[in-house]
Amino acid sequence: MNPYRSTIFWFLASFFFVSCAKETIITNNDAPNYNEVSTLLIENYVNRVYIDFIGREPLDSEMVLEVGKLKAADLAFDARRKMIENLQTDTSFIEGDSSYRRAYYHRMYNLSKARVIEGASNSEINQKMGIIKAQMKQDSINGNWAAYDENKRKVEKYQKVLDCDHEFEQGLIYIDSVFARMINNGIYDFINMNSFNFVNASFDNLLYRFPTGDEFNRAYNVIEYNQTELIFGQGASNKDEYIQAMVASSNFHEGIIMWLYQNLLQRFPNSAETAHHLDYFSQTRDLQEVQVQIAISDEYAGFD
């Protein structure tokens, strides 16, 4: 084989396998000497992982166990991955949490609410549903069935927000559906009153940018006038269809990656980091894997 062609072949083959591997991570070129990482830094890392992934600090017993495992593995990326994946997936009973998995998904549910509906509590949502249900009863007494049906739709949208907590955990919905529900209810509408504010807020909250003039005009026509427009490459003629087009777009997928970096690293990803995660996430909607790749990095761990 021609040496030049052979070199190209092995380069492309290596690139293919590295690109497709789930465990691919972005790290610094010069890895630190992990033998010099103090116990305190390792404890800080474990503490941060527990808070970010299940919303609490580790118990003393958990800290001792996790630090011991990480030290025994010389802080290997695989050991970090196992710790994080255990918090995401383990269903064993944990007093106070039900399980790590339940605590993790409840944490993601609360983070999602915090992102777009100002962290509205379940009790607040239930209270609003109760008020509407009382009105529905009055509507039925008065025979005002149009109002009854409209209020029923409002209740259903609130209920879908509450259902996210367990349906996301059970794999019945992906993160795109979670956020579609989070911006399609009375609380979000109250925060962002009228179509003008709703369009700008939905772009800002989910995409981390404001719409261009053309995007705004199209979205406004859909929401305000139920006029059919092309939104993110899809036809939409009402608010529900506009939301579905938005969360199905690559723009939204980039927004999810930005959101995860903000949550875990308190910064936005650079273009290389976004590109690294985007293709995989767009194909799989595997939010958990993107989180893992960020949280096993030396930057996140504080080992760099």
Q: Could you give the order of the helices and strands?
A: HHHHHHHHHHHEEHHHHH
Number of helices: 16
User: What is the arithmetic mean of pLDDT?
Assistant: 91
Low-confidence stretches: 1-21, 23-29
Q: Helix content range of the residues, please?
A: over 70%
Q: Rg from C-alpha positions?
A: 23 Å
Outline the structure in words.
With 304 residues, the chain is mainly alpha-helical. Helix content is 70%, strand content 2%. It contains 16 helices and two strands. It has helices spanning 3-20, 39-54, 60-72, 77-89, 100-116, 122-142, 145-167, 175-182, 186-191, 194-207, 213-225, 239-247, 250-265, 271-284, 287-295, 298-301; strands at 229-231, 234-236. Strands 1-2 form a two-stranded antiparallel sheet. A hairpin with a 2-residue loop joins strand 1 (229-231) and strand 2. Helix 2 (39-54) crosses helix 3 (60-72) and helix 8 (175-182) runs antiparallel to helix 12 (239-247). The two termini are 42 Å apart. Mean pLDDT is 91; it is low at 1-21 and 23-29.
Could you provide a short overview of the structure?
The protein has 304 residues and is an all-alpha fold. The protein is built from 16 helices and 2 strands.
What layout of secondary structure does this protein have?
Blueprint: H1 3-20, H2 39-54, H3 60-72, H4 77-89, H5 100-116, H6 122-142, H7 145-167, H8 175-182, H9 186-191, H10 194-207, H11 213-225, E1 229-231, E2 234-236, H12 239-247, H13 250-265, H14 271-284, H15 287-295, H16 298-301
Helix pairs in contact: 2-3, 4-5, 4-15, 6-7, 7-8, 8-12, 10-11, 13-14, 13-15
